[in-house]
Design a protein that fits this description.
17% of the residues lie in helices and 48% in strands. The chain has three helices and eleven strands; from the N terminus they run αββββββαβββαββ. The longest helix is centred in the first third of the chain and has 23 residues. It starts with a helix and ends with a strand.
Amino acid sequence: MNTSLRNSLQFAAVLSATALLAQAASQSFDFKDPKGVNNVQFKLDAPLESVTGTANGVSGTVAFDADHPETTRGKIVLDAASLTVGNPLMREHLHSDKWLDVANHPSIVFEATGASNVRKQGAQVLADITGTLTVKGVAKAVTVPVTFTYLPDRLGARLGKPELKGDLLVLRANFQVNRSDFGIQPGQMTDKVAEAIDLSLSIAGSSPRT
């Protein structure tokens, strides 16, 4: 075996070992909250009406390594039927086929595929998470500024079960999307339903230990 080939194989082996170590160090956090507290808030601030609401049907998993947060990957799923506003008729319209078409598109999904601009700020990690947001069957590439708070050994405290061992990962994010990008009544009723949708998340994922 010549020297060049041997060096190439050794380099490939080192890369593979590094990837395996990084993967092994990542923890998987489950965002289906047994307390039902996890939620997404949304706001559409149009000239004639300001509409606000929430959704609590959050699930999904995120792989996070506190020592290498740049490797963060995962998926957050929102049950579209859990989206609600204070006005029952408005909620019905929101779920209808003219708007979110919940019957045919039951999930809103964000799949994270990369992290950049990663920096630490005290106990928190800030990063720009890139990925794909799918709403009403339309997938768009987005970048979301996310704050991660890793809380080792705090799972039992959150659930009120001190005997339960495990860690928490709290994600916080505020960002904006345009409904026309996802084919949601583009250009229609903009005096009452804003084009821009402000989204706010503060959700906790759990990683139990035995």
